[in-house]
Amino acid sequence: MNDIKRYTYTRLAYWLQSIVVAETVPKRTGRLAKSIIVQRKGEGAVVGTAKKYAPAVHYGIRKPVVVRPKRKKALYWAGARHPVKKVVIPPRKGNPFFLKAIQKMQRRLDRDIGKVVPDLPKKVKEEIRKELSKIEDLLVE
Hints:
Strand order of the largest sheet: 1-2
Mean pLDDT: 87
Low-confidence stretches: none
Number of helices: 5
Shape: elongated
Distance between the termini: 33 Å
């Protein structure tokens, strides 16, 4: 049964990754979407990103964030008129792209699970439902 679970959770992780990348992650530059990866862990897999700004995009920013240079005297980027000593990022609402993808996955589970994992036992399908609701609870702050 562990092999079935491991295989199932890995396939579901790749399915979740495809939903996040194709449908829910914001794509201003495409870097965040390209950074969404699946890593096998224990009996399952983890879908995530190593981008430092991902939590700010997903959960939002409650207080203004001040960005200052670490090594130089000023900040500069392509397109800026001149170097600046600091940049203030204002508060903003989040775009919970992982949560939206999990909710889409839950809605499509009955219809599409056979395509993702053929011949899945009913007991495992119910376990998946429970696990998805646990994950959703973790993502909602």
